[in-house]
């Protein structure tokens, strides 16, 4: 009986890990959809001001910090909260000179897990997501893996191992 319970537990854990690594989580699906919606309708976001940014970050329990991506030709244009099964997620939208949208997402989490960066591709969007300390981050854009990884490094440099 103990062997059966052990095998069942190992199988369930393996399945959960496999689904998360291969297919992402509900969170990743939600942020990709938010990015796609913002790309088609960017006018429903709050224009950036220091007061608006501070208020939005406070609502998710994070310190106000809009990453400076000017070195990559990206200017922040708006921010908004999007809903998630795991709580409110802050989306900061950036545009490049050609008008392409890049989204940076932050979700405050009660867990202090460390999740290394993962790359997903859905609906023509490349998503890089990770968790550090009590924050989950994601960068979404219709760009190459290398370009999105470069943006993620400016948002938060990858830890040195």
Can you walk me through this structure?
The chain has a 7-stranded antiparallel β-sheet with strand order 1-2-3-4-7-6-5, with helices on both faces. It has one domain (26-155): MucB/RseB, C-terminal domain (Phosphorylase Kinase, domain 1). With 161 residues, the protein is α+β, with helices and mostly antiparallel strands. The longest helix has 22 residues, at 2-23. The chain is 37% helix and 30% strand.
Fold topology:
Blueprint: H1 2-23, H2 26-40, E1 46-47, H3 50-60, E2 75-82, E3 89-95, E4 101-108, E5 115-122, E6 125-132, E7 135-141, H4 145-155
Antiparallel strand pairs: 1-2, 2-3, 3-4, 4-7, 5-6, 6-7
Give descriptors for this structure.
37% helix, 161 residues, 30% strand, seven-stranded antiparallel sheet, alpha+beta, Phosphorylase Kinase, domain 1
Characterize the overall form. Answer: globular
For the terminal residues, how far apart are their CA atoms? 41 Å
**Number of helices, where a helix is a run of at least 4 consecutive DSSP H or I residues:** 4
Order of helices and strands: HHEHEEEEEEH
Strand order of the largest sheet: 1-2-3-4-7-6-5
Tell me the helix content. 25-40%
How many structural units, i.e. domains?
1
Number of strands: 7
Residue fraction in strands? 25-35%
Structural class: alpha+beta
Low-confidence parts:
2-23
Summarize the biggest pleated sheet: 7 strands, antiparallel
CATH architecture: 2-Layer Sandwich
Q: Kindly provide the name of the CATH class.
A: Alpha Beta
Radius of gyration, taken over Cα atoms and rounded to an integer in Å:
17 Å
Question: What is the H level of CATH, i.e. the homologous superfamily?
Answer: MucB/RseB, C-terminal domain
CATH T-level fold name = Phosphorylase Kinase, domain 1
Average of the residue pLDDT scores: 78
